[in-house]
Design goal:
Layout lengths: L1 E8 L4 E8 L3 E5 L6 H14 L2 E6 L11 H8 L2 E4 L4 H13 L12 E2 L5 E4 L2 E7 L8 E5 L4 E5 L2 E2 L2 E2 L9 H12 L7 E4 L5 E2 H7 L15 E2 L2 E2 L1
Parallel strand pairs: 3-4, 4-5, 5-6, 10-13
Antiparallel strand pairs: 1-2, 2-3, 7-8, 8-9, 9-10, 11-12, 13-14, 15-16
Length: about 230
């Protein structure tokens, strides 16, 4: 059993997820906390709930998803996990943020690389790494398979997909990632995206306009492109 707490951070309304088990082990996914008010809300929650922060999992390295990393590393000494292909994004974040009129994030922290299919374990929690390049070259999603919970970053949203009009983004790669890596997950998997409301894999198969092959249900079999709905 895992608990999921959502924080909405910075002017981009980025979602950070605090995931914990019943024993108090906790991880943060995409801490976009900007400023003392937002980092203070995290610190207060960890103290109030008696949680032990063990790691930060990054779906990608865009500045709005990493503002709070330096605070967490400094205060809690946690390890940062990210796909190695995000290295150029990290290097370009200063210019990217400045170009958007946003503060430049502090990226002076070490990180540990993850790879597709790897399973990370913290306390009683397991997170399967699913490589989903497209929105960024090293974008990943994290799947808590037993609990049916997917943290999709900016790969998949409710009714849409990640922005590919950005440096290092690629539309074709993103479509392939979503179709081949995510749409085959259990239909009732809950999706927690980096922005906006939550959704499910079943809903996206039949309602997401970017996933047209999944929108044509066979009236005889009740299956969509080989997957039962």
């Amino acid at each position: 059993m895992i608990n999921i707490r959502q924080f909405t951070c910075n002017p981009f309304e980025e979602h950070c997820y605090l995931v914990s088990d019943e024993g108090g082990a906790a991880v943060l996914i995409d801490p976009g906390f900007l400023g003392e008010g937002e980092t203070g809300a995290l610190d207060d929650c960890l103290t109030r709930e008696g949680l032990r922060l063990q790691a930060i999992l990054l779906t990608h390295a865009h500045f709005d998803h990493i503002y709070g990393v330096k605070h967490c590393v400094t205060r809690y000494g946690v390890t940062i996990y990210i796909h190695p292909d995000e290295a150029p994004v990290l290097r370009g974040d200063a210019a990217f943020a400045a170009g958007c009129g946003m503060p430049v994030p502090d990226t002076d922290w070490a990180w540990t690389g993850v790879k597709d299919g790897e399973v990370l374990r913290f306390g009683d929690m397991t997170f399967k790494v699913i490589a989903t390049p497209g929105h960024s070259p090293g974008g990943v999603c994290y799947l808590c398979e037993e609990e049916g919970q997917l943290f999709s970053g900016d790969t998949l949203f409710a009714g849409t997909i990640g922005n590919t009009q950005l440096p290092w983004a690629d539309y074709d790669s993103l479509i392939v990632s979503v179709m081949e890596k995510l749409m085959g997950l259990d239909a009732d998997t809950e999706v927690h995206p980096g922005h906006g409301g939550g959704t499910t894999i079943a809903y996206e198969r039949t309602h997401n306009p970017f996933l047209q092959p999944f929108n044509e249900k066979d009236p005889e079999t009740g299956w969509v492109d080989g997957i039962e709905i």
